[in-house]
Design goal:
The chain has 714 residues and is an alpha+beta fold. The chain is built from 13 helices and 38 strands. Strands 7, 8, 9, 10, 11, 12, 13 and 14 form an 8-stranded antiparallel beta sheet that branches. An 8-stranded mixed beta sheet has the order 31-32-34-33-35-36-37-38, with helices on both faces. The chain is globular and about 70 Å long. The protein starts with 22 loop residues before the first strand and ends in a 10-residue tail after the last helix.
């Protein structure tokens, strides 16, 4: 009988495995035997809506694992409490956002002292008094195990406020409409939306998205205020089960955007918000591999036009084109910002006199402002070796002000207002760290680690200036590497609790992201997915070889698709890591990609491959899928976290992985699984409750790296 490594508890699966025969299936002449398939609830769709309907034997298994996890963590209880105290002391409890002006009002969020959830508020534009609380998150969350706001938008006349909230962590959002003057919600209550909401220009209609039976966002509905939701009209139905649907709006405010797509292909339809009953207009029919995003300018060179960011014509890192609104198809696209390899255009917004784009080159982001008349450009960039930069266009089209947020791993977040015409900038907010933070006490660096095929992998580092880089420091090495997502080198108050205890915090910007352009993403997906794993291993070896980290004190950390990375490197190089933290880890890759009834499977085939139809994709995924490659060998200490109502990485993936590891591995190292029985992919919803989960992860890392003592002062 396999047991938890410190003798805390028997494997919860051992007592029930005999009652659940393995699932045996054949694909492409190969036989798959899955001994823990029984952990996948047959009624998983119902569990998403109501966790109470989970089968008793599965619940007992998960709760036994949770009990064992708590038993292992019990000796570190005081450390966890200390970590929470430290992290909470760095949070300004009565914090508020910088107000964003929309016509007569400025909208903002704030927290009350001790509050877990935001208050959504407004006050008259230009005033510092006269606040109205539109929604009180703490009051709405009272008595609920989970509560999370989704989309929230004021009506064009500012009399109503449409808002959505998820109360299970399953990403089913209920849409409500608040009468601001009355302070109460209207009868318009629409359940099980995706959270997206869009107003018509006259405030008469709302557009929203519903999911299909497999939890995929597929249907756009139009709701007339004051009518029963049952009479809402279906105005768009996505025919491809591999495409997801979302709603947006152009900066001009004229059009709503129905964006459809997967990881390779996109298609956009325009909703004329001034004529909400008119059929949608498609910009360009979908074509495999063609991606584009749309903005609107009513008088570009005197023509009502669209401004389109696209990878058309081989522009892998994207370019910006224009097209007349009357004939928006690709045949009429004309280059405005030409393609330049290595400069990845991330997003763009169109204003009356300026076009703004966020781009990345050589791993660093910048904002570029282009004058509509004449085309002169200037950039907003920064001098630190690694930093994070975000852009917020705010409300309105006829304006010259934008807002951006800057931070680095040592510099707390700063919010700036920037005038595109005068180039003047105003600091509106600097993140406060109530317990104190001195950036000069820390160092941020950017290294380039060589991978086995000659590629250089960017690595962002944060460490205390008095931490010796002599080969003795413990290291938390974070990685993701999927979907083209870039991991920003931004500020985090939580990670200071590790750094102040002598850790080097490192981010490996491995292939699968877009830190070095779209090629960097392409080289870490499908048949080349293993490049992501090899890059992460190469970074760990480089940090040890350069004496940045102790070779026996590196703890790897990743979540979701980054959790798959954790499972893969644990199989490939278990000797390289002292510990592995895998949060909501996508580790049962082959079985999930073979199940086209799961929410994300068809949309994910362009990322991983379709093993149902493609024997080569089947072989590729089978060769690296963490669950399928667990072997009888020594593994590092492993801490896996899951969410019962997670629709993205279903709870049974980490559960099956841990069960198989426990029955197979040969080492005495800790193996821990903790499932949040009241949350989904993002974990706990309250801002302080989240600290408890972070403290568990950090306590595990500190224990595995044999770090004791109280943190120094930041």
């Amino acid at each position: 009988m396999s047991r938890l490594t410190d003798g805390v508890a028997s494997n919860p699966a051992d007592g029930t495995a005999s009652a659940h025969p393995p699932l045996i299936r054949s694909f492409h002449g190969e036989t798959l035997v899955d001994p823990y398939a029984w952990l996948r609830a047959d009624n998983w769709r119902g569990v998403m809506r109501d966790p109470a309907v989970l089968a008793p034997d599965i619940r007992a298994w998960l709760e036994a694992e949770n009990a064992a996890a708590e038993a292992w963590l019990a000796p570190h209880a005081e450390l966890r409490r200390e970590l929470v105290r430290e992290m909470r002391a760095r949070i300004k409890e009565d914090d508020s956002s910088v107000p964003a002006t929309d016509g007569p009002f400025a909208y903002f969020t704030r927290f009350r002292e001790g509050g877990q959830h935001p208050l959504i508020c407004r006050r008259p534009a230009g005033a510092i008094a006269g606040e109205t609380v539109l929604l009180d998150g703490d009051a709405l969350a009272a008595g609920k195990a989970y509560f999370q706001f989704g989309d929230a938008h004021q009506s064009p006349d500012h009399a109503l406020f449409a808002w959505t909230a998820d109360e299970a962590g399953s990403e089913y959002y209920t849409l409500r409409v608040r009468d601001i003057a009355a302070g109460t919600d209207r009868p318009d209550v629409i359940a099980e939306t995706t959270g997206d909401v869009l107003w018509s220009a006259d405030g008469t209609y709302l557009f929203y998205v519903r999911r299909d039976p497999e939890h995929r966002p597929s249907f756009v509905y139009r709701h007339r205020l004051g009518t029963a939701p049952e009479s809402d009209e279906l105005v768009y139905e996505e025919p491809d089960k591999g495409f997801f649907v979302s709603l947006g709006r152009t900066q001009s405010g004229r059009f709503g955007l129905v964006s459809c797509g997967d990881h390779d292909t996109s298609e956009v339809w325009l909703i004329d918000l001034e004529a909400p009953l008119v059929p949608f207009m498609r910009v360009e029919p979908r074509e495999p591999g063609l991606r584009y995003g749309v903005e609107h300018h009513p008088a570009l060179d005197g023509v009502d036009s669209l401004v389109i960011e696209t990878n058309a014509d081989g522009a892998e890192d994207f370019k910006i084109v224009t097209a007349p609104l009357a004939a928006p198809g690709r045949a009429n696209w004309r280059d405005l910002v030409a393609y330049r390899p290595g400069r990845l255009i991330l997003s763009h917004s169109a204003f009356r006199d300026h076009l703004v784009r966020l781009e990345r080159e050589d791993g660093l982001p910048r904002i570029v402002v282009r004058e509509i008349a004449g085309g002169a450009e200037h950039a907003i960039a920064f001098a630190e070796e690694a930093y994070s930069l975000g852009f917020d266009p705010g409300y309105g089209f006829d304006k010259t002000e934008i807002r951006f947020t800057y931070s680095s791993m040592t510099t707390p977040a700063e919010v700036w207002d920037y005038d595109m015409a005068s180039r003047a900038r105003e600091l509106r907010k600097r993140q406060e760290v109530p317990s104190g933070h001195e950036p000069g006490n820390y160092v941020t660096r950017r290294l380039m680690a060589p991978s086995g095929d000659g590629e250089l992998i960017p690595v962002s580092l944060l460490f205390a200036k008095d931490t010796p880089l002599d080969g003795t420091a413990p290291c938390l090495l974070y990685g993701y590497g999927a979907y083209g997502i870039s991991i920003p080198a931004g500020f985090s108050t939580s990670r200071l609790s590790l750094v102040d205890r002598g850790f080097v915090y490192a981010i490996a910007h491995i292939r699968g992201g877009t830190e070095k352009g779209w090629r960097w993403y392409r080289e870490g997906k499908l048949a080349k997915k293993t490049n992501s794993f090899k890059d992460f291993i190469a970074v760990a070896e480089h940090l040890a070889g350069e004496r940045v980290a102790a070779p026996d004190r590196i703890v790897a950390h990743g979540g979701s698709a980054g959790g798959m990375l954790m499972g893969a490197v644990a199989n490939m190089r278990p000797d390289l890591f002292a510990g592995i933290v895998a949060e909501v880890p996508f580790v049962d890759v082959l079985n999930t990609m073979l199940d086209d009834t799961l929410p994300l499977t068809p949309p994910e085939w362009p990322e991983w491959g379709n093993p149902i139809l493609d024997p080569e994709a089947f072989a590729t995924i089978r060769a690296y899928s963490p669950y399928d490659n667990v072997a009888a060998k020594d593994y590092p200490a492993i801490f896996a976290l899951a969410g019962l109502t997670d629709p993205r990485v279903t709870y049974w993936e980490p559960a099956k992985w841990v069960a198989k590891l426990r029955a197979t591995k040969t080492d005495p190292h800790p193996l821990i699984l903790r499932t949040n029985m009241d949350a989904g992919h993002g974990g706990a919803s309250g801002r302080f409750d989240r600290l408890d989960e972070t403290a568990m992860v950090y306590a595990f890392a500190l224990a595995i790296a044999c770090v004791t003592g109280t943190a120094g002062k930041g």
